[in-house]
Structure formats: structure tokens, C-alpha cells
Design a protein that fits this description.
Length: 925
């Protein structure tokens, strides 16, 4: 059984349709069908179905309509009475509109054009004419019909892009010309037609089509074609090869652009030697790559055998073959603390690298992986996945676009990747004597190697031909040229031992002697720093964090870091950031046991204080309106990074995100509970705004436990409240409600009215997300009352705006207006610019629906000015879109198009899905 909305409203079962008689009955069914699985209040149903002409008996009549519809649907539980209204309760996809949206989503995220074609054609086949055809005289349902019309149109355009991908350009030309006759100013249709004409060998006609549209836009609307069309014309004029080779990605709005091609590869090793056979094999695979497939290669071998060095060296050599970007992530599959990088975290990093706006990133690993494949569709990108633990960590990160290449390194063989995905396996063994000698020659020089050939051979033997050990031994020779190679060989021989701490089943080489000798050759200060760095949880460390570990200034620690780099005991993948090879990290941690336990505790405390105090400073720069928290006194010798402003604070959080995640785990393990919950508190705004909700939820879970161990109920309550936001962002509303309930109980136990107010405010926000606007109104009222009682005027003003906005969403604009106006006045007094912008936008929306378009436009312009001052590009575009709606309603189509065009350009640059919505407005104007 299914309710059908994509045409006349009726009910269908087993392919047989049953008509529902009566405008009001159909309207009730349509409203419930447009909210499948959601409660629609009786008041809302009456408002939509009868409007201002609702009779006194409307509630009784509604109940009779519900009874009739249950019979028509063949089940008494098909519509459930649930206060304050009713819920459509059909198994599976309750409506054809729901089925269409699912198919469109599958079609626009599929990396397989053939599957995308099937999904999109299946979706479009569900339309039977004008949606909601027999109830559109009712205002709200007429608006919903327009929305479903736009949905059909978006699916049509997506289908055309897929057909262009599949080479149907000639067949599409007459269809596109017919569509353009109905939408003469639709630039995306013109883009598709120009591309189809060009690919069909009709270049002159394609360019003539552009010139004709350019004249029409200038004559009728006074504007020029958009950036996408201008770039396409230029590409056609130069006969750009990419027009034939790559079709536009299905899921990106026309004209969308992303950030410049990412270049994430670490620094190349200048003295790389050997492995010429493996390099040649990789080169041959790229040269002979099937243009219809993704190249995948795995490089496996024991620890220290040079897998990462080979991968990075080769990736730099071939990067020009992948002009759309090179992605790199260290998956930390064999870190000593087992802190694997979650594939979802790696995916977020890749999506960020391509400039994908956070609002466009869905919740859930599968959905994010689908978006990632869509972003890479039609591109040539090299992906280096370093230090993978297993195939499960790798698969979500594989692109689906032909022309891409993936290089995976791992200590494991990853046989399943070879079997299922057709990866080409390359196994690295120990170097041959000749390869080892070549490596030493490149680092020590031909003359020195020739002069001490016997000693060089002994060094090779003592290092067991392992590249990492040879590199460290060579660094010892270079940094101490007065010591002959024979002396180095003798010291290696004398310091032989076993690296018991590694306890690695795949390590068949004893290199502790190499590590030990190099470590003991360090100055006392550098050796101490080496040991202390072993206490850091990774994955890398900044200069100021290293300084804090050692209790030194940044200037004082730099020469010590330089000595470790010269000795090849430390890597420097980026400017002013350092990391260990994982074997050396384990060895450094081993050496740290030489220090007194009290010294280790003090060093860890300095490190945690560095991160905590810097993070709190950054948090207040990003959001100066937060209530500051009391922090532990700074340990002597701790360096706090001084941040100049909001942008630098954001950059610091971005650079340290993975480190802070590891630091919180380390703090919890070592009993620094206050640092745990305060570090989670400090990262709240950055992780929320960046869309890193899984990490945010994990941090806050640790914070709840840590605050509980401390008996700090206020900290526990705040962590519960913040964790609810993370779960709500991911669509996990039941968990969000559970955490808010826990927070409310804790705040009530503390008699903290401000905390209770914040929970009520959050509950209102959550209710609006779930479209339960009546409940949102109740929570906003409670929040307002409690904020006023607790003496928090700024939050009270925000709650007043929240109340007005909930009324507006509920359709009660006359109650919404005075509340938002009062809120705006208070915010101006208090200097709250962020919420002045949001409240001005709310008032624009309210006055628009009250029919006062002049006042609406004024409020939207004020919001625009503020969002621009705040550099909030998404909400600037959102407000421009609303302003365009108001201009259209006022009859000024030209002004509406200008506002929409500006909004569309911003959203396209952000690669945001709302660009499609604005594009539909432009096309329909």
C-alpha cells in the first residue's frame, strides 16, 4: 500500500489505484503523506486544509476524514493518533515521493553511470503529471507541488548529465532543445546542449548557441551568462581535451567549483636510492592503465623496509599525471597505542581538501564514501594510503572514477584487496648488498665509500640491509665526519642487542643496535628530548609542544630538534612539525623508562597544559561569547602558543585535530580527568562547525566519564548537552534526546537555571529539526523564562529570537514578529553581531510572509551586511536566496535574479547542495 502524490492524490496497492473522493480528504492524506513517519498536529492539518475558513466543527470533520482514510488504506493502524495529532504509518516507502527521493539520491551519488541511469529513470517514471494535481488550490499544498516539480526537474538534469557521460550526445540534442523552449533562460540546460553539440562535432553551433543566449540575457534581464557557461565557451574555443574525455560530475550543481587541486604529499626524500625495479613496475602500471578502471597497488613489507619512502618518492615522480590532485593520509595502522585512523576521519580530510562544504557532507561512513566517489568522478587523482592495518580501513577510501590511482602501504599483505579489487601486489624485501651500498654512496659520497669499502660492507651487514637502519647509520657518519666508517661499524658491533619492546611478529631484523648507537651518540640535551618525545601520543608534534615536553623555550628546543633530524631519528614532514617512524617512536618510549617516574609525570603534565591552555585561548577567539571556565594553573616550563585572532585559532585547531584526539585518550589513561573534559569543551565550536561530529561525540563521551570520576556534575551536564548536538547533527535524535534528558537532571540537581535554560533552548532547536514546531515553541518559552531568571540577558535575547522563529516556522507570523523585533533590539544593545544577523534574517522571513516585502528586503540586507562582516559565506548565500524570493514576490524579477545569481555563485564555490535549489529558482523565473 502506498500514497501517491506525484500526480492526482490517490492510494495504490499491487499496481491498482483507488481514488480518494473530496478535496479536504485528499488534502488531509496529502499533508500526512508529505510528512511520512512524522506527527502532524491537528491544528496544522486544519490550518492547511481549511485555512482562515475553518468551521467550528473542523476538528470533528478531521476525525471523520481520518477514519475514512484508514478504511481506504485498508488498515486501522495506517494512520496513528499520536498527540498532538496524527502520523502516517505505512510499511516501507509510504509515498511515491519518498521512493522518488531515494532513487534520485542513489542516482546522484552513484559512481557507476549505468546504475545512476537506472535509478534516475526509475525516479522520473513515478511522476504522473503535476504533483498534488487536485489539491494545489490550497496554498501550502500548491507550494509543495512547486517543490516536487523542482525535484522532477533536478532529476531530469541529473539524468541528462549521466546520458552525456554515457555518450548519448546526439540523441540528447532534440530533447534539450525542447526543454530549452520551455525554459529559455536555464543556463544549465544551455550548458548541456552546448556540450552535446560540441561532442557531436557541431562546434560552430555550440558557440552560436552561447552567443544567442548571451544576447537574450542582456536584452531581457540585463545580465551576462554565469561563470560555468563562460568557462565552457572558453574551453570549446580552445578545443580543450577534457571536454571529450570527462563528462561533468552528476552530483555537483552546474557551475560548481571546488578548491584548487589538493597536493597533500609529504616532503620527498632527496637521497632516495634503490628500488628501481619496484619503481619501474609502478611506472608501467600507470602507463598501461585501463582508462575504464581505477589502478590500485599495494606495497607490503616489514617495519623499516622503506614502504613509505618508496610510496612518497614515486608519488612525487608521477604527480603531474594526476593534475586533479594528490591525496595522502597516514592511517596509523601499526601505532604503538593502536590508534587507527577511522576511515570516516580520513574521508572528511579528503572532502575538506576538495573544498566540500560541511553542510553538504552527510552523516554515516557509507554516505560519505559515496559523496567522496562522486567528488572524484571525472577526475584524475592519486591517493596514497600509508600504513594501512587491513582492507576494512582501505575500502571506503577507494575512488570509483576511472583514471584515478591508489597506492596502499602496509605491513600486511592485504590479500583480500588483491583478490576482490584487483590490486597489484608489490612486496618489499631487504635491500641487496649493491642497493644498500648505493644508498650509502648517495649519502656519504663516492670517495668515502670507496676508501673504506670493507667498513661500509660491515655497516651493511650490521644493519641487515634494512633501509631505516642504514639511513640512521649514514646520518651518524655524516654528522660526525671525523669518525671513520670503520669506527661506526665497530660501535654498531659493540652495541648489538634486541628490540624486545617492539614484539612485532613481522619484524625479522634486529635493529636495536642501530637505534642504540645513534641514540647514545646524541648530546645529553637531545637524548633527553628524544626520550620525552616518546611520551607524546602522536601522530606528530609541533615545536611549542616539544618545548613544553622538555620544559624549554621554542628557541631552546629548535637546535635539539635539528640534531635529531640530522641523526635521522626524527622526521619533518611539514614546516615546524615533527614525527617519528613508528619503530623509533616505540624505541623512544622504551628509552623514556630510564627517567624517574616523577619526571615523566611532570613532562606529560606540561604537554597537556600546553594543549589545554592553547586550546582554551583558541576557543575564546573563535567564540568570545562563551562563558569561560576555570582552568588548572599552568605548570612551570610550559609553552602556550600565542594566537593572533580567530583565523589563526581555527588554523591551530585544524592542524592539531588528530593530535588533540590522541591527547584526550592519553589524558584519560593517565588520570588527568580535568584536562579530558576541558579539552573536549575547548574543541566544541571548531568540531561542530567543521562537521567532525563523530570525533566530537567520542571526545564528549570521554569527557562525561572523566567528569563523573571527578564528581563534577556541572562539567558532566555540559558534556551531555554538547554530545546531544553532535548526535542531532548526525540525525541520531533518540541519542540526542537521551543526553539532553541526562543534562537536564544534572542541572536540576545543581539548581542551575542557566544550564536548564540552555537544555530547553537545545530541545527547541532539536524539535524544529524534527519539524515539531509546537514543541519547539514550548521549549523556547521555557528557555526564555529560565535565562531571564538566571540573569543571562544575551542568552535571553537569543531565546526570544528562537521563540519568534519557532512561531514563524509554525506559520504564526503575527506572534513571531514582535518577539524577533524585541530580540534584535536587545542584541544591538548587547553587541551580539552573530545573532543580530540571524535575527534580521528571521524578520525578513516573517515580513515576507506578512506581505510587507519592502521591510522584508530591508531586514535581509541588514543580515547580509552582518554575515559579510562575519565572513560567513554560507549564510550570506542563504540570505541572498531569501532576498531573491522577496523580490520575486514583489514583482521585481530582475532584482530577484541578481540576488539568486549571487547566491548560486557562492554556493557553487562552496560545492553546496543548495546550489541546485537556487538554480531551480533561476530557471523558473
Amino acid at each position: 500500500m502506498q500514497v501517491r502524490l506525484l500526480g492526482p492524490v490517490d492510494v495504490a496497492a499491487a499496481g491498482v489505484a483507488t481514488e480518494v473522493p473530496g478535496l479536504r480528504r485528499k488534502a488531509v492524506l496529502a499533508v500526512l503523506g508529505l510528512h511520512p513517519g512524522q506527527i502532524v498536529s491537528s491544528d496544522r492539518l486544519i490550518d492547511v486544509v481549511w485555512g482562515d475558513r475553518a468551521p467550528a466543527t473542523a476538528l470533528n470533520t478531521l476525525q471523520r476524514h481520518i477514519s475514512y482514510l484508514r478504511d481506504a488504506l485498508g488498515c486501522k493502524t495506517s494512520i496513528v493518533a499520536r498527540p498532538p495529532g496524527y502520523l502516517l504509518n505505512l510499511p516501507g516507502e509510504a509515498t511515491d515521493a519518498e521512493a522518488a527521493q531515494r532513487l534520485i539520491r542513489l542516482g546522484t551519488t552513484s559512481s557507476d553511470p549505468a546504475r545512476a541511469l537506472d535509478h534516475l529513470r526509475g525516479a522520473l517514471a513515478l511522476w504522473r503529471g503535476r504533483p498534488l494535481a487536485d489539491v494545489t488550490e490550497l496554498r501550502w499544498l500548491g507550494e509543495q507541488a512547486d517543490r516536487l516539480d523542482h525535484l522532477e526537474y533536478e532529476a531530469t538534469r541529473a539524468l541528462i548529465d549521466v546520458r552525456l557521460t554515457l555518450g548519448e550526445h546526439a540523441r540528447l540534442i532534440p530533447e534539450l532543445e525542447q526543454l530549452i523552449s520551455a525554459r529559455p533562460f536555464d543556463e544549465d540546460l544551455h550548458r548541456q546542449l552546448m556540450l552535446a553539440l560540441y561532442r557531436a562535432g557541431r562546434q560552430a553551433e555550440s558557440l552560436a548557441r552561447y552567443q544567442r543566449l548571451k544576447r537574450d540575457l542582456a536584452d531581457e534581464l540585463g545580465i551576462d551568462p554565469g561563470l560555468a557557461l563562460r568557462e565552457l565557451e572558453a574551453a570549446i574555443l580552445r578545443q580543450d581535451a577534457s571536454l571529450q574525455a570527462h563528462a561533468p560530475a552528476v552530483t555537483v550543481a552546474a557551475g560548481s567549483t571546488v578548491a584548487s587541486a589538493p597536493a597533500q604529499l609529504p616532503l620527498a626524500i632527496p637521497a632516495f636510492a634503490a628500488r628501481q625495479g619496484e619503481i619501474a613496475r609502478l611506472d608501467a602500471m600507470v602507463a598501461g592503465q585501463n582508462p575504464a578502471s581505477v589502478l590500485i597497488a599495494t606495497v607490503s613489507g616489514t617495519a623499516g623496509v622503506g614502504k613509505t619512502t618508496l610510496a612518497v618518492h614515486w608519488a612525487h615522480q608521477v604527480r603531474r599525471s594526476f593534475p586533479d590532485g594528490q591525496l595522502y593520509v597516514d592511517l596509523r595502522g601499526f601505532d604503538r597505542d593502536g590508534a587507527l585512523v577511522d576511515p570516516a576521519v580520513a574521508l572528511r580530510g579528503f572532502l575538506d581538501a576538495f573544498g566540500v562544504a560541511v553542510q553538504r557532507i552527510p552523516a554515516g561512513l557509507d554516505a560519505q564514501a559515496a559523496l567522496y566517489r562522486s567528488v572524484l568522478s571525472g577526475k584524475r587523482v592519486l591517493v596514497v594510503l600509508d600504513n594501512a592495518r587491513d582492507v576494512a580501513q582501505v575500502r571506503p577510501l577507494l575512488p570509483g572514477s576511472p583514471g584515478c590511482a591508489v597506492l596502499v602501504t602496509s605491513r600486511n599483505q592485504l590479500t583480500a584487496l588483491v583478490t576482490a579489487e584487483g590490486a597489484v601486489p608489490i612486496t618489499l624485501g631487504l635491500l641487496t648488498d649493491d642497493e644498500a651500498r648505493d644508498l650509502l654512496t648517495r649519502r656519504l659520497g663516492e670517495d668515502r665509500v670507496t676508501a673504506e669499502a670493507g667498513a661500509v660492507q660491515e655497516v651493511i651487514t650490521q644493519c641487515a640491509r634494512l633501509p631505516l637502519a642504514l639511513a640512521i647509520a649514514a646520518a651518524s657518519c655524516v654528522t660526525r665526519p671525523e669518525v671513520p666508517v670503520a669506527g661506526v661499524a665497530a660501535q654498531l658491533r659493540d652495541s648489538a642487542g634486541t628490540l624486545d619492546a617492539l614484539n612485532s611478529a613481522d619484524t625479522d631484523t634486529d635493529i636495536r643496535s642501530v637505534f642504540s648507537w645513534s641514540y647514545h651518540a646524541l648530546s645529553a640535551e637531545s637524548a633527553r628530548l628524544f626520550r620525552l618525545l616518546g611520551l607524546h601520543p602522536g601522530p606528530d608534534v609541533s615545536e611549542s609542544a616539544a618545548a613544553s615536553l622538555a620544559g624549554l623555550s621554542v628557541a631552546g628546543v629548535r637546535p635539539l630538534l635539528a640534531e635529531l633530524i640530522q641523526a635521522n631519528l626524527l622526521l619533518q614532514p611539514n614546516l615546524r612539525r615533527y614525527r617519528f617512524h613508528d619503530l623509533l617512536w616505540t624505541y623512544a618510549a622504551d628509552c623514556s623508562q630510564q627517567d624517574e617516574p616523577e619526571q615523566q609525570v611532570q613532562a606529560v603534565r606540561r604537554l597537556l597544559d600546553h594543549y589545554l591552555h592553547t586550546a582554551l585561548s583558541a576557543a575564546m577567539l573563535i567564540n568570545p561569547h562563551r562563558d569561560p571556565i576555570a582552568v588548572p594553573e599552568l605548570s612551570p616550563g610550559t609553552t602556550v602558543r600565542q594566537l593572533a585572532g580567530k583565523e589563526e585559532a581555527t588554523d591551530w585547531f585544524t592542524a592539531e585535530r588528530a593530535v588533540l584526539f590522541a591527547v584526550i585518550k592519553r589524558a584519560a589513561a593517565d588520570g588527568f580527568d580535568r584536562h579530558v573534559w576541558q579539552l573536549a569543551w575547548a574543541q566544541q565550536d571548531h568540531l561542530d562547525r567543521g562537521g567532525h561530529w563523530e570525533e566530537h561525540a567520542a571526545n564528549l563521551g570521554a569527557a562525561i566519564e572523566a567528569a563523573g570520576r571527578q564528581g563534577d556534575q556541572a562539567a558532566q551536564a555540559h558534556a551531555h548537552q554538547s554530545r546531544s548536538t553532535a548526535f542531532a547533527r548526525m540525525g541520531r535524535y533518540d541519542q540526542a534526546h537521551t543526553h539532553l534528558s541526562d543534562a537536564l537532571k544534572l542541572y536540576a540537581g545543581l539548581d542551575d537555571r542557566g544550564g536548564q535554560a540552555t537544555v530547553q533552548y537545545q530541545l527547541g532547536w532539536l524539535a524544529n529539526r524534527q519539524r515539531d514546531h509546537e514543541q519547539a515553541i514550548r521549549h523556547a518559552r521555557q528557555a526564555l523564562r529560565l535565562y531571564r531568571a538566571s540573569g543571562k540577558p544575551m542568552m535571553a535575547a537569543r531565546a526570544l529570537n528562537s521563540l519568534g522563529w519557532a512561531y514563524a516556522l509554525h506559520g504564526d507570523y503575527r506572534r513571531a514578529r514582535p518577539r524577533c523585533e524585541q530580540a534584535l533590539a536587545r542584541m544591538r544593545e548587547l553587541g551580539d553581531l552573530t545573532f543580530q544577523a540571524g535575527t534580521s534574517d528571521s524578520l525578513g522571513y516573517i515580513y515576507h510572509h506578512l506581505g510587507d516585502y519592502e521591510l522584508a528586503a530591508g531586514h535581509y540586507r541588514r543580515a547580509l551586511d552582518l554575515f559579510r562582516d562575519l565572513n560567513d559565506r554560507y549564510y550570506e548565500a542563504d540570505t541572498l536566496s531569501h532576498l531573491g524570493d522577496t523580490h520575486r514576490a514583489a514583482g521585481d524579477i530582475r532584482a530577484a535574479r541578481i540576488a539568486w545569481q549571487q547566491a548560486h555563485e557562492i554556493l557553487s564555490r562552496l560545492a553546496h547542495a543548495d546550489a541546485l535549489v537556487v538554480r531551480a529558482k533561476l530557471d523558473g523565473a
